[in-house]
Known about the structure:
Bound molecules: tryptophan, zinc ion
Largest sheet: 8 strands, mixed
Structural class: alpha+beta
Amino acid sequence: MSSRRPLLLLGIAGLAGALVSGPSLAVAAPGEPGSPRYSEGAAGTGDPYFPLAGNGGIDVLHYALDLDYTPPAAAPAPLEGRLDAVATIDLVATADLDRFNLDLRGLTATEVTVGGKPARFEQIENELVITPRPKLKAGASTQVVIAYGGPTTRPTDIEGALYGWVTTRDGAMVVSEPDGSPTWFPVNDHPTDKSSYSFEITVPEGLVAVANGLLTGSSTDGDRTTWSWDAPDPMAAYLATATVGNFVLDQYTAPNGTPIIDALDADRPASAYADLALTGEMLTFFESLYGPYPFNSYGAIVDDDSVGYALETQTRSFFSRNAREGTIAHELAHQWMGDHVSPERWADIWLNEGWATYSEWMWDEYRGRDTAAETFEAFMATPADDPEWDFVVADPTPLGLFAGPVYDRGAATLHALRVKIGDEAFFELASAWVERFGGGTASTQDFAELAEEVSGQNLDAFFDAWVYTPAKPTVW
Ligand code: TRP
Ligand code: ZN
């Protein structure tokens, strides 16, 4: 993201110096003529649903998270753990910066360096405001090291659902959609800034810490064990995890060659994760629809506590208490649809949930249960005056991000599109979508444009009826 300051002012300021005034020059100019003017970055990326999530002026390349965690000492509520951490963040300035922000919520930063030099910082609500010296020029890369920590609790999202670093009796469930990452690390918390990650997580011996990607080692020193994980594939912050519990790791290679690492809670019966045996066959099935599995590994985490939902944490889907077949298919399909191709804005969430739900419909058909067409017909039996139809799929509002229609009408939209453009164009669209936008983000408009490009049809009326109008669609 670049500074919105008019370029013209650069020249004027250089000549006139202190004589130039006005709000756009409130951030003081460096003394010399021709030297860059610096901005404050921005406290958010401008996502209308979460205006302060993410930040302007920076592009994070890599987060190396060194987390030292101790779960609650005793069971009685409130559950409170202790996190002491160092985040080493490689980033590039995308504007001339004399200040920039990261998001951090409920934890205290104690020391910050930028490029090896101590930096001033302050925490204002959920923003960590850092003043680098020397200042950062646009295009410069630097390393920011932040020591931070504090007690951990059980945070909730705007709907009241548990998310973020959710303290449990024997560890933590870490699932951060949509804006929960700042509850456990300082972060540019928006999907438009994807980064690679590495983790060093130290926990009491006997517990297992499970993050994204591949396990690169574990070592025990005294009564603490450090678990190291490497996640080199670009990842949106909400998909990062560092879940801690009484897990048994089950490692194998899927038929498509993907290394699988499942983390299964020793306190759950085998029936809670029996359906995970279908993972390999599902990988092969979804590769046939969407193209090669995009990441270095996969696997599931099944915890004995619950956040009330499952999450498609990248390469390592999280399940509350039980991993059931439909949910396993849903979270696996998200790896392509949501994780590899992520929403440009949170309003585009139906592209995640619609595809993941439609993937469940197609998996059901593949397994000989209802066909996708039958599931679609059943959904369309909902009468036109049902309040379910009074919903704008492509603008669900922040409180409607995970509402039913985002999932089922989102899936029905995809089936209706398939009927409209035909199987050949539809599956070409699915793989082209992943191919073109994989590793980044895309919007509803990007999707509609690609669908028109692949099918050669004008789809204005179609998308209008299905995702922009709060009424039951009658055309497809
Ligand atoms: N994205 C998750 C899924 O569908 C669901 C999810 C995330 C969710 N946060 C939530 C559902 C909060 C309900 C409430 O796989
Ligand atoms: Zn989902």
